[in-house]
Write a structure and sequence with these properties.
The active site is at residue 138. This protein is α+β, with helices and mostly antiparallel strands. It is 31% helix and 27% strand.
Length: 367
């Protein structure tokens, strides 16, 4: 049997450490051990206290000889089912053995960054100044990077390793997202004795949702209702129903228009019965778009050329820590590392993609 490369062995170890969202402490401690072995100083911020996580973001800094400071980032948390992961390899592809995710999202990214740091040190490769941010709670609204203590470092640009494209694929544009939380308000009554005295919040919600444009709105915009909850006994006319929805768009005006459309569907349905819904709109994160002539694009393009990878710029409908770094004046892109079927038990990643991405990171870091 062929021996796995060090970065692959590292990845196989990392995925076995449970780190569901808000429970990343154990994995963070392992990463601290790996940084200590490399003689790299590190610290935590207080993001965990803010968002109710058992640890903060892990930040490390490495002095280099180059004139730039580059942020490299990946997130520590995983989605469910992500406990007791057992990885296996078949024909160069890594999957999980059981009914769990693999956690390539984003332990493949974490593994590649740690391996990059190891190679730079071992081979005494001249490199730019480096900041590493391993974030928490990315999977729930990018909460870790949203609450990252940006006063602890500065960077000229950022490299996030958290995309499903093959190495060389680079996400340069991502959407903004609004969370739309609605409580439909009806009027309770006995469903068998006096139903005419009640107003069903379920009926109001159904009318509102039926009138909403959902799914793929256009090439830049999507909308979805993720959950609906309410009601109880069949002999009670339900007076409250809650939905949690989202809107995403690469275009700010379209984001606003779709959000307002969904709210209007709610208010129109409620007003029909002389009642008023409770509506909350939360800006989850902002959109980003990186110009072709930016420093970060030039750096990644050059590194792709040196490592024999085809540079492919693209956009995504998903959010990542990239959104928050750009919002905080660190122009950033999201690199592909080849993960597939993320957030599903069929998740997989090719060994060669992790290795290629690691080589790309090393080249980006070089001074």
């Amino acid at each position: 049997m062929m021996e796995n490369s060090r970065v692959i062995e590292r990845f196989l170890e990392y995925v076995k450490i449970d780190s569901p969202t808000k429970e990343e402490k154990q994995f963070r401690q392992r990463l601290e051990q790996d940084l200590d072995k490399l003689g790299i100083s590190h610290e935590l911020d207080n993001a965990g206290d803010v968002i109710g996580c058992n640890t903060g973001n892990l930040i490390a800094k490495i002095q280099g000889t180059g004139d730039k400071t580059i942020l490299f980032s990946a997130h520590m948390d995983t989605v469910s089912p992500g406990r007791g992961i057992e990885p296996e390899i078949k024909d160069g592809v890594i999957t999980s053995k059981g009914q769990t995710i693999l956690a390539a999202d984003d332990k493949a990214g974490v593994s590649a960054i740690i391996e990059m740091l190891t190679v730079l040190k071992e081979e005494k490769i001249p490199h730019h100044n480096i900041v590493v941010a391993f974030t928490v709670s990315e999977e729930v609204g990018l909460s870790g990077s949203k609450n990252l203590d940006y006063s602890k470092f500065s960077a000229d640009y950022g490299i996030v390793v958290d995309s499903g494209g093959a190495p060389g694929n680079v996400v340069v544009q991502g959407p903004a997202q609004n969370k739309v939380n609605v409580t439909f308000v009806g009027k309770a009554a006995h469903a068998g004795v006096a139903p005419e005295k009640g107003v069903s919040a379920i009926k109001i919600a159904a009318e509102a949702i039926a009138n909403m444009k959902l799914g793929r709105i256009d090439e830049e915009t999507t909308a979805n209702i993720g959950s609906i909850n309410g009601g109880g006994a069949t002999n009670i006319v339900t007076d409250r129903v809650e939905i949690k929805a989202e809107v995403r768009s690469l275009n700010g005006e379209k984001l606003k228009a779709q959000t307002e459309h969904m709210i209007k569907c709610v208010t129109d349905a409620q007003e029909k019965y002389g009642l008023k819904a409770e509506i909350e709109v939360i800006s989850a994160y902002s959109a980003f778009k990186i110009d072709e002539d930016s420093e970060v694009i030039k750096a990644v393009k050059a590194a792709c050329e040196k490592t024999g990878l085809e540079f492919v710029a693209g956009k995504t409908g998903g959010g990542s820590d990239t959104n928050n770094y750009c919002l905080n004046n660190i122009p950033s892109v999201n690199l592909g590392i080849g993960m597939g079927n993320s957030h599903a038990i069929e998740e997989f990643i090719n060994i060669e993609d992790i290795e290629k991405c690691t080589k790309l990171l090393i080249e980006i870091a070089k001074a």
